[in-house]
Amino acid sequence: MADSAAHLSKSASKNKKRAEKRTKARIEQIKENGALEAIEMKDPVGVLREQLQEAKDTKNHVLAAKLRQQLWIVQDNAAGVSMAEVEDLGGDISSCIEVKSVNKNTTTTETPPAVSQASGLTSVEKRLRTLKKKLQQIESLREKQEQGEVLEKTQLDKISKEQETVDEIKEIESLLTGS
Fold first, then answer.
1. Which residues, in sequence order, are CB contacts of 77 under 8 Å at separation 6+?
2. How far apart are CA 71 and CA 49, in angstroms?
3. How far is it, in rounded angstroms, from Cα 175 to Cα 179?
């Protein structure tokens, strides 16, 4: 069936036209309900990619560079990179999206700090957990040293940084408890 569209039966062609009409009606309904803008608000990366492509097509290199920078910032934010690193780049995520929306009174809520979907822990909680593991390793190295075992230079360096680790754990715990 090389040219199946030309050899459709009468009922098949009617069904095809009906399906196309339903599809167009669904698209129009989505546009009218503002669901398209809601999707764009949830996915700023897609919007920025479209804007970047438009800038490339019109050969607006300055705008393309700015959009590329903003795209990187948004992607980093979505991946959980700290805001301090983003601020070092001079990016403002809220200004990077031009939403062509009918409803201009929509508000966006800020997500909690980089919650990992796999473990359900924030980046701060993960850092606390790794520091506690590091402290346990330091204690086991100290026990080995007391038993007379000869330690490597890196292990001795780790033991020497015990107080820094303890201080950082206390600082993070105070941040989490809010005191």
1. 83, 86, 93
2. 7
3. 7
Q: Would you give per-residue pLDDT tens digits along the chain (179 residues)?
A: 445 556 789 999 999 999 999 888 887 877 777 655 655 556 677 778 888 888 889 888 888 888 888 888 877 777 766 555 545 555 444 444 443 333 334 444 444 455 545 556 678 888 889 999 999 999 999 999 999 999 899 999 999 999 999 999 898 888 888 75
Written as one string, the DSSP assignment of 29-59 is HHHHHTHHHHHHHH-HHHHHHHHHHHHHHTT
pTM of the model: 0.35
Tokens (6 digits) for 176: 């989490």
Angle at 167 between CA 161 and CA 168, to 5 degrees: 90
Query: Which sign, positive or negative, has the C-alpha torsion 39, 41, 45, 47?
Result: positive
